[in-house]
Protein: 3-oxoacyl-[acyl-carrier-protein] reductase
Amino acid sequence: MGLLTGRTALITGAARGIGKAIALKFAQEGANIAFTDLAIDEEHGGKGTERDIQALGVKAKGYASNAADFAQTEETIKQVLADFGSIDILVNNAGITKDGLMLRMTEAQWDAVIAVNLKSAFNFIHACLPVMMHQRKGSIINMASVVGVHGNAGQCNYAASKAGLIALAKSIGQEMGPKGVRANAIAPGFIDTAMTQALPDNIRKEWVKKIPLRRAGTTEDIANTALYLASDLSSYISGQVIQVDGGMNM
Structure:
């Protein structure tokens, strides 16, 4: 018996990266996995992720869905419920960056990041809460960032969206606690992903120098934290933000 045996987890933006790592970790602990991404095909990794999860002996299905689209989200949730019967865990992981200094940032850059990073979480929480309330149990995890706690020059849109995810988790935790639904946020620091691997070596080295543990985090580090928040190991934890950053921001 795994920590999540018999439960269904829904993870947004999980065809690759942190989302995929969380999906695989949950599956290893017995959860059935529904996940979304803009496309579920071979080219963008969705079909491969689906096969990788199924190979762990659980049910898994990917859904092509724009997380920022309210109507699409409602239809996706209907399909997930038809296929899986319940949603016990929701991980709002979908996210993008469109960095730039405020004076150079366009309205389109601002709107896109807020829509994908923050509005998508509203969409999925709004659609999943009736199910979780009926079950009188559920764990919601918002994937925030340390820049949502401390800010970061050149990322006003991204930082604002991630700060919003933290406040959203705290507010949902207060509203839904009496219904047995918990909500928390994870704030990753400098994580070794395709996005950060694209940075020049000198920039990566400067980031690592700021981290007391002297290494970048891994997607496994984030997945382990998500597993803790999704499972009964954290049954008395709600409305919290856990910074997974190697001590970078103490």
Q: What stands out?
A: The mean pLDDT is 96.
